[in-house]
Amino acid sequence: MTKKGGKSSICYKFLERTETPKSTLALEYLFGRRNKGIESGKEICHIWELGGGTLFMDLLEIPITIENLWNLSVVLVLDLSKAEELWYNMQTLLDTIRKLIDRALESSKDPTAKNKLYEIARSRIPKDHEDLQSIEPFPVPLLIIGSKYDLFQSEDFQKRKLICKCLRYIAHTYGASLQFVSSKSETLITKARVSISAMVFGTSSSKTTASDHNKPLYICAGADSYESIGSFTTLNVENKTFTEKNMTSEVILKAILIPFFDAHSLVPYSEIVNRSLEAVKHIFSSYFSQVESRSILPDDPANDPHFKEPDIDNLRAQKKK
Predict the structure, then answer these.
(1) CB 159 within 8 A of CB 239
(2) How many whole angstroms separate alpha carbon 220 and alpha carbon 208?
(3) What is the pLDDT of residues 95-137, one digit of tens each?
(4) Which of 127, 182, 193, 312 is least crowded, fewest Cβ atoms below 10 Å from its Cβ?
């Protein structure tokens, strides 16, 4: 969903379309088919691709309806080469999607719909997971894709490590899957195709975890852990060591350690999760000052050669005379 983050390329690869992707205008609809067998017919997945970063995110209310919620999955594409926009785009889009989901649930005639949806979300995390009580699953299946890994891998190691740890923390807390992709790597694109197919068609996918920060991340929902992600207090980015001494508040450090919170605390669990995410955001933003992605209206598609319609174009030309 990040502007020019490689969403269309991933969609086209998933749909096995060979033409060169064109820029997405606002919210575009695509669909894919999968043969289930001679007697079973075909399965269809409906894809709504949001273009323009956060500019047109209100249009997401079109696909996010109470009728679609039970089969809805979200693939969030983040441009790894633009760390200064990454957190802003991620938080803004996920918050908007969550609000639209809650709004759709409020319109349901079933008063238990919200509880049912969140129970399904929690069931995606293994019951014996060590962090089960510390995970606040996103209400629908969520796959976070870090795109343009080919550019990202040339960055300073400590910068890459910080971005990887923060994205792992977010994905794990939301019970989401996380993987890095490059349109220049057929292997990584294939992995993305398999992951998306598993989300929409229920096909099998690799469960092998790749969490080495020197390599493209590939971590399925529920396969990570806070212990594996590790501490945020020993990072060194551009010779600036991140320690407890230069934190603006001790509360921030404590909030990061969700698994070690007192289980009997009077603070609502959702508030604890929010505090921890704000703490990680603070760390990330300390090194990558966030800027709002520029919301510039795209050029008039009527003048785009990709959208030529001779009959309509002739009528428009006559009207302008």
Answers:
(1) no
(2) 8
(3) 999 999 999 999 999 999 999 999 999 999 999 999 988 899 9
(4) 127
Asked if 64 and 130 count as a contact pair (C-beta separation under 8 A), the reply is: no
Positions in the chain short of pLDDT 70: 1-5, 21, 37-40, 233-269, 293-308, 321
Report residue 320 as tokens.
Answer: 């302008």
Q: What CA–CA distance (Å, rounded) separates 30 from 11?
A: 9
Question: Which pLDDT belongs to residue 112?
Answer: 95
pLDDT at 269: 64
Nearest CA to 212 out of 235, 233, 228 is that of: 228
Instruction: Spell out the SS3 assignment of 246-311.
Output: HCCCHHHHHHHCHHHCCCCCCCCHHHHHHHHHHHHHHHHHHHCCCCCCCCCCCCCHHHCHHHCCHH
Q: Mapped to the 3 state alphabet, what secondary structure does 7-74 carry? A: HHHHHHHHCCCCCCCCCCCCEEEEEEEEEEECCCEEEEEEEEEECCCCCCHHHHHCCCCCCCHHHCCE
pLDDT, one tens digit per residue, over 283-302 is 899 889 988 765 555 556 56
Cβ-based neighbours of 293, under 8 Å, separated by 6 or more: 2, 3, 53, 54, 85, 88, 89
pLDDT of residue 243: 46
Query: Where would I find the beta strands (DSSP E) of 39-175?
Result: 41-50, 74-79, 142-147
Q: 251-255: long-range contacts at Cβ-Cβ below 8 A with a sequence spacing of 24 or more?
A: 251/275, 252/278, 252/279, 252/282, 252/283, 253/279, 255/279
**């969609």: which residue's tokens?**
11
With residue 179 as reference, give the H or E element that holds it: strand 177-180
Q: What token pair was written down for 183?
A: 């349109």
| Distance (Å, whole) CA 234 – CA 248 | 16
Name the residue with tokens 């992951």: 195
Structural element, H or E, at residue 200: helix 186-201
Q: How far apart are alpha carbons 71 and 218 in whole angstroms?
A: 24
Report the amino acid identity of residue 64: I
